[in-house]
Amino acid sequence: MIYAGPSSQFPIYDGEQVTVGGRISVVTTEGPRRIAMEHLFQRSGEPAEIHVWLMAQDGADRDEAERIAQTVDPR
């Protein structure tokens, strides 16, 4: 899911907040894996925030959702 607008509901998930590549990401640990469950881009222009989060909660669907979320570019 992607929200683009003036004020998102970030964060949705509990986890470590990490700032990387111009975005804040919420990372959770699942066994030995770290999964970026959501990302928040804050911008000076409109939309002021772009919030990307995963809804697929397990297995291959989650892996694919995480790969897709990592490709979002706010340009």
Topology:
Layout: E1 2-5, E2 16-20, E3 23-30, E4 33-42, E5 49-53, H1 59-70
Antiparallel strand pairs: 1-5, 2-3, 3-4, 4-5
Number of helices: 1
Please indicate the percent range of residues in DSSP E strands (runs of 2 or more): 35-45%
Major sheet characteristics: 5 strands, antiparallel
Order of helices and strands: EEEEEH
Structural class: alpha+beta
Extract low-pLDDT stretches. none
Distance between the termini: 18 Å
Return the average pLDDT rounded to an integer. 92
Strand order in the largest sheet: 1-5-4-3-2
Percent of residues in helices comes to 10-25%
What are the defining features of this structure?
single chain; 75 residues; alpha+beta; five-stranded antiparallel beta sheet; 1 helix; 5 strands; 43% strand; globular
Describe the overall structure.
This protein is α+β, with helices and mostly antiparallel strands and 75 residues long. It has a domain at 1-35. 16% of the residues lie in helices and 43% in strands. The protein contains one helix and five strands; from the N terminus they run E-E-E-E-E-H. It has one helix spanning 59-70; strands at 2-5, 16-20, 23-30, 33-42, 49-53. It has a five-stranded antiparallel sheet with strand order 1-5-4-3-2. Strand 4 and strand 5 form a beta hairpin. The radius of gyration is 12 Å and the shape is globular. The mean pLDDT is 92.
